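Hi V.,

Quick status before I head out on leave. The structure for the redesign project is tokenized and pasted below; the design run finished overnight.
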């Protein structure tokens, strides 16, 4: 995929009926022209994250019944629900727990580290003795093994983080967080 993909971003769009969808916008020619994906996620599935994995684009969206993973091998011309894809990664909300508090995937990237391809993602987790997710944990998988690298942020506030983003650049991993109160932080 790296040979044919230059830049790709998730976006949210509305149709005439005001239904909200997730889709992608991408460039394949040195960023001089941009195209929208032809197919879209199911209505009312929001907060899309995308990454490239094994020749496919993966899009994770938050839906009322939990997270869904969609896969495209043709730059969004078609998307199929990727049931069972990286099954150790995707966790739906527990019964009685809101999507915001569940152990769902937040930030998501792929990176080549020391010659190996890895998917890195953040997910809220529990610190010892806590009954609610108060830690943001970094997870790593190669699609065969998945392990937690531990908490990268911990907070006591109930709604302490709105979103996070991961960036792997020049051998460094960067975490950007945005909080409900509008403040941000880079780690």
């Amino acid at each position: 995929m790296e040979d044919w993909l230059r830049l790709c971003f998730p976006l949210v769009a509305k149709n005439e009926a005001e239904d909200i969808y997730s889709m992608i916008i991408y460039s394949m020619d040195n960023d001089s022209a941009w195209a929208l994906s032809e197919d879209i996620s199911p209505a009312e599935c929001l907060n899309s994250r995308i990454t490239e994995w094994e020749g496919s684009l993966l899009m994770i969206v938050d839906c009322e019944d939990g997270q869904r993973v969609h896969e495209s091998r043709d730059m969004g011309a078609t998307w199929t629900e990727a049931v069972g894809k990286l099954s150790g990664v995707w966790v739906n909300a527990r019964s009685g727990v809101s999507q915001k508090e569940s152990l769902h995937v937040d930030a998501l990237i792929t990176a080549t580290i020391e010659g190996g391809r890895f998917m890195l993602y953040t997910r809220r987790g529990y610190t010892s003795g806590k009954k609610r997710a108060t830690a943001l944990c970094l997870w790593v998988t190669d699609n065969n093994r998945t392990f937690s690298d531990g908490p990268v942020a911990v907070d006591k506030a109930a709604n302490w983080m709105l979103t996070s983003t991961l960036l792997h650049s020049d051998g460094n991993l960067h975490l950007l967080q945005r909080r409900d109160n509008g403040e941000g932080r880079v780690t």
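Above is the designed sequence. The chain has two domains: 1-85, 86-187.

G. will cover questions while I'm gone.

Best,
W.
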